[in-house]
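DATA SHEET
Item: assembly model
Revision: 1
Owner: S.N.
Input lines:
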Amino acid sequence: MKKIQNIVIGLDIGGTNTKFGLVAQEGKILAKSTVSTKGYENINQFIETLHNEINKLIKNLPEKMSIKGIGIGAPNGNIFKGTIENAANLDWKGIIPIGALMQEEFNVPVKVTNDANAAALGEKLFGKGKNISNFMMITLGTGLGGGIIAGNNLLYGYSGFAGEAGHVIVKENGRLCGCGRKGCLETYVSANGLLKTVKEMLSETEEESMLRNVKFDTLTSKNIYEYAKNGDFIALKAFNFTAEILGKALANFTALLSPEKIFLFGGLAEAGDLLVKPTEKYMNNNLLSVCKNTVSIEKSGLKSGDAAILGASALIWQLC
Amino acid sequence: MKKIQNIVIGLDIGGTNTKFGLVAQEGKILAKSTVSTKGYENINQFIETLHNEINKLIKNLPEKMSIKGIGIGAPNGNIFKGTIENAANLDWKGIIPIGALMQEEFNVPVKVTNDANAAALGEKLFGKGKNISNFMMITLGTGLGGGIIAGNNLLYGYSGFAGEAGHVIVKENGRLCGCGRKGCLETYVSANGLLKTVKEMLSETEEESMLRNVKFDTLTSKNIYEYAKNGDFIALKAFNFTAEILGKALANFTALLSPEKIFLFGGLAEAGDLLVKPTEKYMNNNLLSVCKNTVSIEKSGLKSGDAAILGASALIWQLC
């Protein structure tokens, strides 16, 4: 007879792809796969596809699986209602009761939150945050997401959408944000923000830069990083500018939240010392005196490919 | 035989006076009094004086009292260590182990935090926050203090000093703050901030104002309020300027914390609709869309004279 293994299904719904995995209690991913998020006639067809694919994963494993629940990280995921609400990057518009639909299909508990909150929970259960009661997770992708662990719990707030660090306004009348307002942190501190900074610097100054040899439209945060590593003046200046804005914002967040650690996760965080060190410098230079030496910045302890699945699964594992 | 009544001693240590009261479970203050905070040879003499005065209060009551503990609100009060740390307005410099000293003197549990955190707890236990899981308390006095209730608990953070809303920097290279940095929220939004705003407006413009007939040095936030009520142009403009800065800051705090309510307490909050209404307007105009209609601003439900004592007592009552 097969041994029975308790697992949670961790599901990360992105604009293009949906990643999912079978996660054991200690955060080990036993199997994972991906389906497209696009191209379904309706949400039910998407869920049916997911069900089939998840069943395939389970059947391929040597042990018998008992599914404890399904955790979902999704843009604008609402923990209280189990819904995805008006997510700009998804085909399904309006308010999607993804939690209820999945629960009906799988007959197990389902929890939904946004991806940055899920990442913070993942860090708490399976990453560097295990023994840290108060920390902040900053996810740096196309945009900037935030998740707050306060007193060992994820801070959802009244709306369920707390932690929206990317939409704290840091510059009055600053860059236009996808949210319709101006000067949001993520318009500066994100892959897109860095790109915009470099383009501005290239067009507004005559400073020397190898980036002038790259076709404007093929610039990416990744090649900016490569040039910065090679000492390119504009690339380094852009990283420094990004770090200054992020560091000052984190000093403000610390006055409010007093985290012990701030974990950076995602594409830009991979720039490592090019971003983390100067961000920490600017943060420390701007900290309120009672906050000095109480907070530090580190790269996340989660593997980039697995973080979203682990984080989503943490929504259920934290209840077990 | 006298009936035994459980009480908590609530103690509010200010720069000039220390207020204290005997607080019953439902937040009723059975008796209260005040001693000077200044003029003692050392902290022990201060504590001895307090002990004598508290004993007098207790003896004057008809019932027999059982003291459950002592809650202390004090500038830079550290909940984790029971200390007052480098408080600029107090005679005792450095780190004062007020918790341990009081515990020795009274032989009951003692808890210490800063005044704004205590006020937030007071609102939670005895004010309008009873049934609200996520709210923010903003205390508007000479400066600006903040306390955050998140998931029904006061957010202390790693340092114990979370909630320092007054020291979130809202203007790059803005007004010099007592903390040594520039542009802190409290340099604009506080009694002193309002005063500075009016003085700037009077000296930098030729706009008509009855405030020009008030001696510059005798201007106070209170007479600015009186003139504003009477429609004075500069006084109203100063309140609007203050509300704009506060409203925008609260919109940012909401992105991070998602409170259901933001309670305003203290001198400036007494200005009522002159401050609350425009602050709410500016906050709403600057909210991230997912936060719209999730948060509102109200005056605190605590009586101004009693709030500090009630808040301090809540440190102990919440444990009972």
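QC remark: Residues 198 and 236 of chain A are 10 Å apart (CA to CA).
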